[in-house]
Amino acid sequence: MEKIKVIHDAVGHTLTVWLGDPAKEHVCEETAEELVIMKDASGRVIGFELLHYHPSEAPELGLAVETVIRSEA
Question: What residue spans define the domains of the chain?
Fold first, then answer.
């Protein structure tokens, strides 16, 4: 499994999550929900970007990330 990369752009107000290698991005599609989906050449989703992202009114709280690890059955 590849590493997940999370980027919060506080100036541009976006939250970008890469599920794969960003260098393999081939096409982007913007949805009606102000979400951009990034895909590789085979059409596999490798990332998404949430537009107009504001994490909290209290900047000291930062961005919380929860990790859940499941073993293969």
Answer: 5-59
Of 7, 6, 68, 18, residue with least CA distance to 45? 18
pLDDT per residue of the chain (73 residues) written in tens, 0 to 9: 568 898 888 899 999 999 989 999 999 999 988 999 999 999 999 999 999 988 766 666 666 666 777 766 5
Q: How far apart are CA 15 and CA 51, in angstroms?
A: 7
Contacts of range 40-44, beta carbons closer than 8 Å, 24 or more positions apart: 44/20
